[in-house]
Design goal:
about 325 residues; single chain; hpI Integrase, Chain A; three-stranded antiparallel sheet; 2 domains; about 5% strand; mainly alpha
């Protein structure tokens, strides 16, 4: 099978079978397309050295002709460009997943990526705001919404929900009215891989969302050409997008954590860390966050340990 045709089948597999997020599929497609261009350049160079003019496009490259050296050369070129370790790790993961899939489906006899070394990601701890900082932020947002402005009420409700539930921004934007249960203080969300889970949230989030649904959402809904079921709406009445939420969090949380660019994930990180600080079980936090692996959740134990150590050094006379 030709390389480009295999990439098309693989991305369809990611979308329809593995049900990965659109962002992940786009990233894998971009990496594999870039590999295709590199393979074309490698073959063109080989043809030139052989004295022929039959430079072949990626569409004409047979998947079975791609070897380990070609993959290593592609990654080496990325290091020469100065790509970040995280980008390199993602590229290697995309290639390993693609060729592993091709081998399992009988498209190639051997998997050339098995001996491809995956660059280790640099270990960086997530940005976490203090409990006092979050409290001040949410108090300020509640005060701003006191005059009944629809956008202020919406922003307060979104921030309370992001922190109160620890959900992802994509999950927040995807909530419909029927997904909410304000009496039980739970919300049904669709996470990564289209996995559904029910997430609890607290009284302040319930109050803020209730006020928004009663006093703000009906007004925003009148601005929409076609009324929808989304809980959180943009200024024109349509379902709110992640960029709007990102801009809000950057504006209100950035000064608190001292970061110029900080997204909604910082509230998720903060919620997870504060849960563990308060004595929550690690597996319970894993369920709340919707992590497939406990190892992903364990990064928050490192954050909590660092905070505990810092408190010890400040408070203990023999520290």
């Amino acid at each position: 099978m030709q390389y480009s045709a295999a990439v098309t089948e693989f991305t369809t597999h990611l979308e329809q079978v593995r049900r990965l997020s659109p962002a992940t599929v786009r990233a894998y497609r971009s990496d594999l397309t870039d590999l295709g261009r590199a393979l074309s350049a490698q073959r063109a160079s080989a043809d030139e050295q052989a004295g022929t003019d039959s430079a072949r496009a990626a569409s004409a490259i047979e998947l079975s002709t791609v070897d380990l050296e070609a993959l290593r050369d592609w990654l080496w070129q990325a290091t020469q460009r100065g790509d970040a370790r995280s980008t390199m790790a993602r590229r290697a993961a995309a290639v390993r997943s693609f060729f592993g899939w091709a081998h399992e489906n009988g498209l190639i006899e051997t998997d050339p990526s098995l001996r491809l070394i995956t660059p280790k990601r640099s270990k960086t701890l997530p940005v976490v705001a203090s409990q006092d900082g979050i409290r001040d932020l949410l108090d300020a947002q509640r005060a701003a919404a006191a005059d009944g402005d629809a956008i202020a009420l919406r922003d307060h409700a979104m921030l309370e929900m992001l922190y109160g539930s620890g959900m992802r921004v994509s999950e927040l934007c995807g909530i419909d009215v029927d997904d909410l249960d304000l009496q039980r203080r739970t919300v049904r969300v669709l996470g990564k891989g289209s996995k559904e889970r029910v997430v609890p949230f607290g009284g302040p989030a319930s109050d803020a969302v209730g006020a928004y649904l009663t006093r703000a959402r009906p007004a925003l809904l009148t601005r929409a050409p076609v009324p929808g079921a989304a809980v959180f709406l943009g200024a024109r009445g349509a379902r709110i997008g992640p960029r709007t939420v990102y801009a809000l969090v950057t504006r209100v949380l950035g000064p608190i954590v001292g970061a110029e660019h900080v997204g909604p994930h910082a509230l998720r990180h903060s919620a997870a860390t504060h849960l563990l600080d308060g004595g929550a079980d690690l597996r319970a936090v894993q369920e709340i966050l919707g992590h497939a692996s406990l190892g992903t959740t364990q990064i928050y134990t490192h954050v909590s340990a660092e905070r505990l150590t810092a408190s010890y050094k400040l408070a203990h006379p023999r520290a």
